[in-house]
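Friendly challenge for the regulars: who can give me the structure tokens for this chain first? No prize, just bragging rights.
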Amino acid sequence: MQPGDTLSGIASRFGSSVGAIAQANGISNPNFIQVGQRLTIPGASGPSAPAPAPSSGQRYTVQPGDTLSGIASRFGSSVGAIAQANGISNPNFIRVGQQLTIPGASGPSAPAPAPPAPSGQRYTVQPGDTLSGIASRFGSSVSAIAQANGISNPNLIHVGQQLTIPGASGPVSGPGPVTRPNPPGTAGGVSIQQLRAIMPHLSEARANQMMPHLNAAMAEAGINTPRRQAAFLAQLAHESGEFRYMEEIASGAAYEGRADLGNTQPGDGVRYKGRGPIQLTGRSNYRAAGRALGIDLENNPTRAADPDVGFRTAAWYWNNRNLNSYADAGNFDAITYRVNGGYNGKASRDAYYARALQVLGG
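First reply, four minutes later:
Bragging rights claimed.
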């Protein structure tokens, strides 16, 4: 099994079928296969080695921020052709570091350097940045920057991502321009000082570790007003013990067999235990969050405990339940009920909320 492989893609490549391969290898769930797994392919002569990549076309290594449509446009290929050549069943799901064959592009390429950049400055995305803010700062436009960098979703950029800014002359040396501290409760996110004022037991080191991912997730999810941020931070502070716990302390065995959580396979309870600052739980929730975020959480559930993913799953959960609307209305009790399923820890949540409103000016 290679990164990006699916059972349907392998079956097509070897002229077999998903059912036959699943039966030959004792696979009960055809959607759950692992990189490095060895498969027997019925109907193919000899033991099956990982399928070689097609010989024609360039090789390209997926970079942060890449999309299949952007790569196809850059190389004059198509999404369908690249997906077929690489056995990709979901064109919205590619991984950084994944090796792709680009049909129709001549000659092999070394592990891909980023494609030649259009004229303009280079900028490194900083914590709290948005594409609209960067465009405004450099006198460019969101659409121009998105087009120049192959960005299909202008609301999704990552800290550390390198951008070319069309219309700005000369390279930027080092990180992008320093911006003024964000005022309380704006789309730019929260500061270290604000975060620690809301969560008084949060260490400065832990705050520095978490804040870039927290602010990026809030920006991505439109949690961008004092009321929304106060409600979101209050719930996360209580659920995670002020970011002390990014994984449920219990083993997760209590969730075994919970069909309402999608835990239908043996071991699902432990495998899909609560992770992230809002405790994403159950196979079905991991699958749904992963699909929405473009991350294979169903096959890599422990990623939900990593800050760069965990805060995004929390923001996904928040938006999936339309909690911004309750925050806008000041209905914090309704948010508590939808996060907790009841009102456990209400006094603690309310205290964090009151403190966050005071700090952020909500």
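The longest helix spans residues 204-221. The mean pLDDT is 79. Your move, everyone else.
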